[in-house]
Amino acid sequence: MDHDLSTLLNRIADALDRLAPDQEPSNSLANAEAFVWNPHGQRLKSLEKVNRIPFGLLKGIAAQAKALLANTRNHADGLPANNALLWGARGTGKSSLVKAIQAEINTSRSETDRMVLVEIHREDIPSLPQLLDVLRQDPRRCVVFCDDLTFGGMDDSYKALKAVLEGGLEGRPENVLFYATSNRRHMMARDMIENERVNAIHRGEAIEEKVSLSDRFGLWIGFHHLDQDTYFSIVEGYADFAGIKINKDSLRAKAKEWAVTRGSRSGRVAWQFIQHISGEQGIKITLP
């Protein structure tokens, strides 16, 4: 009888466990240094490792790196800082710089004082107010990062973004900065800007609508196509880092041919070339 009763009680306990709701995961920023925002569950997904290139390997963007590093360091230290828009040509290191700067700043900070990077996807921008409500409850300094932030067609979510960045009653949380990258300086497609101009009563209204979103970013940093010498410098730096054994002239010739086939010279093209050469030589690249 005792055995039967024990078996019955265990079965009842198992059934209750299955019926009980799952324990909600914590949104504490103490769990990691990088997160991805999940708007459906209103949750932050922690990342064990961030896909990034070391700060010291980013060549050809010294002025841009200096400006963003200083702004981000001010924020990490609790000083005033600006939201930043990194705009310009594809593959020139905009998103790589954001991720590398977070790691660069955190190398000199204690574990509990490190800055957090939170990525929000472009399609999840309408949920940005909910994300900021979550981050407002945590004392850690953080940067919310959106890559390739561009609006077009009938998309009006940019109006919500404008209100969140500066115009809302609550405003941006004191512990949060917003960084975005875009191929366009004003983040709007040309047809969208033209539509605003046609529908405006006055031409000045269209111009105001065109620039009012980017005006919410106190720091504008432009990225441009590389000249050949800078491209070669990036390639050689990556080659040294990867441990590729090849003479300089041959490396440059191959890198030039690779850039011609891609139709551009950029940090992204240089990294893709290094991955190709590393594969040929059987070298594994390990990023920190």
Write the layout of secondary structure elements.
Elements: H1 2-19, E1 34-38, E2 43-46, H2 62-76, E3 84-88, H3 94-106, E4 116-119, H4 128-136, E5 142-146, H5 157-167, E6 176-182, H6 190-199, H7 203-212, E7 219-223, H8 228-242, H9 248-262, H10 267-281
Parallel strand pairs: 1-4, 3-6, 3-7, 4-5, 5-6
Antiparallel strand pairs: 1-2
Helix pairs in contact: 2-3, 6-7, 8-9, 8-10
Question: Could you walk me through the main structural features you see in this protein, from its secondary elements to its overall organization?
Answer:
There is one protein chain. The chain has 2 domains: 29-223, P-loop containing nucleotide triphosphate hydrolases (Rossmann fold, 3-Layer(aba) Sandwich); 228-281. With 288 residues, the protein is an alpha/beta fold. The longest helix has 18 residues, at 2-19. The mean pLDDT is 84. It starts with a helix and ends in a 7-residue tail after the last helix. It has helices at 2-19, 62-76, 94-106, 128-136, 157-167, 190-199, 203-212, 228-242, 248-262, 267-281; strands at 34-38, 43-46, 84-88, 116-119, 142-146, 176-182, 219-223. Helix 2 (62-76) packs across helix 3 and helix 8 (228-242) packs parallel to helix 10.
